[in-house]
Amino acid sequence: MSFTGKVAVVTGGSSGMGAATVKALASAGAQVNLIDIDRKGAEGIAQETGSEVFIGDVSNSEFCDLTINSIVDNQGRIDILVNAAGIILRADALETNDDNWKRIMAVNVDGVFFMCRSALRHMVNAKSGVIVNFGSIWGNVAGSGVTAYCVSKGAVHQLTKALALEHAEDGIRVNAVAPGEVNTPMIKSGREKPPTVDELQDLADATIPIKRLAEPEEIAEVVLFLASERSSYMTGSIVPVDAGYTAR
Q1: Tell me: the pLDDT tens digits for 159-187?
Q2: In angstroms, rounded to a whole number, what is the distance separating the alpha carbons of residues 183 and 88?
Q3: What residues are annotated to the active site?
Q4: For residue 187, is it within any domain?
Q5: Strand order of the sheet with strand 172-179?
Q6: Sign (positive or negative) of CA dihedral 101, 207, 221, 228
Q7: What is the CATH number of the domain that holds 36?
Q8: Cβ contact 236:174 at 8 Å
Q9: What residues make up the domain containing 97?
Q10: pLDDT value of residue 186
Q11: Would residue 85 count as lying in a domain?
Q12: What is the pLDDT of residue 217?
């Protein structure tokens, strides 16, 4: 898959699946713009990939508008938007306070909406563009102890479908990838005690049909497929990449 001449934007590109997506797109020839709040991590990935870096919070709609407008002004277009930015809260409903709930929704839902809206303004004019959102298996089947995260990812799935229908006649495709358990910093975050390698393997043995976690690069390959012309007849799809977790 060649992305030579394409201008791509990836949020949450400083680590994990976002960083793997930045690297994959850059290796395939795209001019990648990396958006994140983690300056150190973002600049490290940018040095590896030649990406442009924009530091800010996607839950701020003004930042999203200004950043996308700047990219289009300087690079002439936006062909691909990948919304990988996201956070998790490991708490059930009774343990979730107002501020935590609002922050999860602000990043995981508002941030995706704001970035999509900013990019779509330009994509509609160009009659071309691809958006790939990061959902989750927990946007489909839910999980105990991560209430706000599940709700936020379910909202991302519905946003993906709604935008796909709204812009099908504009030459714009909108899909989402729904990863299962992936070997990224997020799988260890938000816990009182980060799981050991053996504990993560126990998790895989107990819940994942092929008995291992995904690597970020495996998810990035699916993102690239959805961003490419090889998926030209796909829009409004939520694509599980979960080793059979949701097949049961």
Answers
A1: 999 999 999 999 999 999 999 999 998 88
A2: 15
A3: 149
A4: no
A5: 52-55, 31-36, 7-11, 80-83, 129-134, 172-179, 238-241
A6: negative
A7: 3.40.50.720
A8: yes
A9: 7-182+215-240
A10: 83
A11: yes
A12: 98
